[in-house]
Amino acid sequence: MTAAVTPTVLTARALLLDMDGTLVNSDAVVERIWRRWAERHGLDGDETMKVVHGRQGHASMALLLPDRPVEQNLADNARMLAEETADTDGVVEVPGAAGFLASLRGLPHALVTSADIALSTARMNAAGLPLPAVRVTAESVGASKPDPEGFLKGAAELGVDPADCVVFEDSGAGIAAGRAAGMRVVGVGSRAGSHGPDVVVRDLTRVSVATAADGTIRLHIG
């Protein structure tokens, strides 16, 4: 689908930002690595790709191979993370991401990603984007999106009530996590529109940031 949006203004005290598909376009790498993994396990590549976006790798594996032991999924995920970290060919910023992050300097915001520290650092660097000071990565949580733990932890680290946060996400799992955390969600890109975000944009060129006198963040979307 083509993302479309009616011009909207949202207010927040903090922003929580997913990485893959939201700030960084890593689809080329994800497709390469997960389709190879699917082929090794006799799974349909297209069906596999419907599952993997937004989740930690071991959580995707648990859905795709439900009878496989957890320990095997965790070991396989560690190998996949190393492979993904080493492969940054085709990793680029989502249009507007650099300017969007620049507009957030000095404002409360955090990266909340299913990637681990090494992978998130590699992809943000490959895309030429600065890492936010506050980061919630795979090592920080016990449950993968769509569980809300990551977003709730991000809000807590910023000292902001969940209801005063706006999430930026691209995947069904991530949007569900933001919703479950009691937050409003801006969907980014073509995947987002069918998963019920509050508003959806084609990319981050459609978002501008202003700050009110009381420190409230005003998001002009559209």
Helix and strand topology:
Elements: E1 8-12, E2 14-17, E3 24-25, H1 27-40, H2 45-52, H3 57-64, H4 70-86, E4 92-93, H5 97-103, E5 109-112, H6 117-126, E6 134-136, H7 149-158, E7 165-169, H8 172-180, E8 184-188, E9 199-201, E10 207-211, E11 217-221
Parallel strand pairs: 2-5, 2-7, 5-6, 7-8, 8-9
Antiparallel strand pairs: 1-11, 3-4, 10-11
Features:
222 residues, alpha/beta, 6-stranded parallel β-sheet, 3-stranded antiparallel β-sheet, 8 helices, 19% strand, globular
Describe it for me?
This protein is of the alpha/beta class. It contains 8 helices and 11 strands. The strands form 3 sheets. Strands 6-5-2-7-8-9 form a 6-stranded parallel beta sheet, with helices on one face. Strands 1-11-10 form a 3-stranded antiparallel beta sheet, with no helix packed on it. Strands 3-4 form a two-stranded antiparallel sheet. The longest helix has 17 residues, at 70-86. It starts with 7 loop residues before the first strand and ends with a strand.
Low-confidence stretches: none
Number of strands: 11
Average pLDDT over all residues = 94
Q: What is the global morphology?
A: globular
How are strands sequenced across the largest beta sheet? 6-5-2-7-8-9
Series of secondary-structure elements, N-terminal to C-terminal: EEEHHHHEHEHEHEHEEEE
Structural class label = alpha/beta
Beta-strand fraction estimate: 15-25%
Radius of gyration: 17 Å
* Biggest sheet descriptor: 6 strands, parallel
How many H/I helices?
Answer: 8
Terminal CA distance reads 17 Å
In helices, the fraction of residues equals: 25-40%
